Amino acid sequence: MKLYYKCVLGLLVAFCLIQAVSAAYTVKTIDISPKGDPTVGDHVSADLVITFPGSGTMTFTETDSLKFFTDLTGAKWSFEIVNNGIANPPSTTGGPIATMLGYLLTYKSDTIILLNVHLEGTTPNASSTSTMTLVKIQEIDKNGAIISGGEYKKELTINNPAALAGRITQAETDLSALRAKLDEKIRLGVDTSAAEAKYQDARNAINNAKGASATQAQTYLNNAQTYMTESSTLMDRAWAQSEITKADDLIKNTDSLITYFTVNRSLESDSRVSVIITKRDIAGQSLSQAKTYFNQANYAQARITANESQIKAYEAYNQSVTLKNSLDGGFGMDFGAILLFVEIFVAVVVIGVAGYFVYNKYFKWDELG
C-alpha cells in the first residue's frame, strides 16, 4: 500500500513539473492591417491579445520573460497589461526586439491578465517575393532557454512590384509558347478544344493580374500557371488520342482487306497474306500498349507507341492494297471501279446497237420512198 501511495505521489510531482515548464501564454487574437500580403515599403501594423491561463498558483513564472521579434524596419512596440479589466498605462519601445519581464505578468492564478501588444513598422526591401516574420514570441526561462511550446510566429509574404512585373512578363512568354504548341497540334488535325478552354482561362488570369493589387495579382498569376499546366496536359492527351485513332483506323482498314483475302478469295494459306497478318498483329500489339499508356496518363509514351503502331499498320495496309490490285486484274483499280467500267462499256454497246438499227430503218424507208 505504501508503494502505491509513493507511485501516485511521484506521478503528481511529475505532472506538476511538466506543467511548470509548459508555455504560460496564449495568443488569443491577432489583427493585421492592411489585410493581405503587403508590398515592399508598406506600413504594416498588428494588434495581439495575449492571455495567461496560469499554471499552479500563479499566472506566469516570475523568473521567465517574453521576448518579441519582428523583421519590420522602424518597428515600434506598445505593451498594455490589463488586470481584471483594468488597463495599466502602456509601455513603449522600438527596434526589432522587445522584452516583457515575467514579474510584470505574475499574479495569483485567480487574476485575469491580458497583454495587449501593438506593433507597427515598414516592410523591408526584397529583391523578389519573399517571406518575412511579422511577429515572433518566445517564452524564455532564467537560463535563457525557450520553454517547451513557448514559441509563436506569424509570417507575411512581401511582394516586390518589380518582381511582380517580371513574373507577369514571364507568364505572357509561357502563354505565347503554349499558343504556338496548340497551333501546331491544330495543323496536325488534333482536337484541342479542351486545352483551348484552359488556355483562355490562363490568358484571362494574366490580363486580370495586370490591373490588380499585388496580393490579387499573385493569386491570378498562380491560377494562370495552373491553367497553363492543365492546358498542356490536355493538349498532350488529345495529341496521343489522335495518334491512337489514326493507328486504330489503319488497322481496321487492313482487317477489312484481310477478311477479303481470307473469306472472299480463300487465301488464308497464301504467304503474302501471312506476311500482312503478321505486320497487322504487331501493329495491334503496339496499339494495345499505347492505349494502356494512355489510361495511365502517360500521354507522351502513348503517342510514341501509337506512332510505332501506325508504321506497321501502314506497311500492312499498303501491301494489302497492292495484293488486292494484283488479284483484281492489275489495273490498280478496286472492284467498284471495274464494275463501273463494265457498266459504261455495256451502255456504250447498247447505245451503238440501238443507233445501228435506227440508222438502217431510216435509210430503208428512204429507199422505199
Polypeptide structure, described:
The chain has 7 helices and 10 strands. It has 369 residues and is of the alpha+beta class. It has 2 domains: 23-159, Immunoglobulin-like, CATH 2.60.40; 166-326. A hairpin with a 2-residue loop joins strand 4 and strand 5. Residues 1-20, 331-355 and 361-369 have low confidence and may be disordered.
Chart the SSEs and their pairings.
Elements (H helix, E strand, L loop, with lengths): L1 H19 L5 E8 L9 E9 L13 E5 L3 E11 L2 E2 L3 E4 L2 E5 L11 E10 L7 E11 L5 E13 L2 H27 L5 H18 L3 H51 L6 H25 L3 H29 L7 H34 L1
Antiparallel strand pairs: 1-2, 2-8, 3-7, 3-9, 4-5, 4-6, 4-8, 9-10
Question: Can you give the mean pLDDT?
Answer: 86
Strand content: 15-25%
Tally of individual helices = 7
Structural domains: how many: 2
Fraction of residues in helix: 55-70%
How many strand units?
Answer: 10
Structural class: alpha+beta
Apparent shape? elongated
What is the alpha-carbon Rg in Å? 43 Å
How far the N terminus sits from the C terminus, by CA atoms, comes to 156 Å
Q: How many strands, what sense, and barrel or not for the largest sheet?
A: 6 strands, antiparallel
- Quaternary class: single chain
Order of helices and strands: HEEEEEEEEEEHHHHHH
Uncertain segments are 1-20, 331-355, 361-369
